[in-house]
């Protein structure tokens, strides 16, 4: 079995891809108690990237991605579920596609919150292919079943915290042949023709929502570049407005407070965008996507044109979908 002797992490040039029409047919058609999906929800082009649609069937464990070209035939490509790899992607559900050994390899990560189509729930996902041929194709999606149902705002309620896991895909291409991910080409294949898979990141995410003032902000921390287990700087989801339909969008910056000393003193440089949606009864869950135009601080990993598209689907503190260790500090 042929395997590269080295472990190259080649950062590809990024392509500002078409985001489609911005409408959102990310749906679960198999649910017998299907309620109303969101309509008229726009995924901002800054985070949608090349992804124009995702159709995720949580029951059948299938995913169809539209818009990430050159991933698979047909244009609406059905990705293959890779459940054994979820643990390497922060627990998000992993799907992959590759037509043959010289075609691009694509990875998609998706998750659906607790709840039903009747009680309400959210879904979000990202997909990416890092090359070859100098271009990174990637983007994200989010969706909700049911209407926006914010919690009641009283003198003692209305401020809500959410916590959970984060996972991202980058334009750093990993050629780890022999691991059962990439189809293996002939050993004599020229290097210029060899595909790579998208290197992943993981982390934790914490979000605070003020439903009295309709504002949201958050952190993504404990971030790691998984192929080398290198620490990455924490980032901030800068405070932004919650719209009347329960969606939000804002900017991402490096956090001025870094728990990892290697990134101490990092400026609050603006590095990308985030967007998402609240769903479930009393806004019991939140899902969204992040698009970054850099992620390793002042080139700590030696990358200069790095990009990342990440996803979060997390529960409200006090629910099964939230990280208990963080929520213990929330009243």
3D structure, described in words:
This protein has 331 residues and is mainly beta. 2% of the residues lie in helices and 40% in strands. It has one domain (9-147, 158-327): Porin. The protein contains two helices and 17 strands. β5 and β6 form a beta hairpin. The longest helix is centred in the N-terminal third of the chain and has 4 residues, at 45-48. The chain is globular. The chain starts with 8 loop residues before the first strand and ends with a helix.
Short description:
Helix content is 2%, strand content 40%. By secondary structure, the protein is mainly β. It has a single domain (9-147, 158-327), classed as Porin (Beta Barrel).
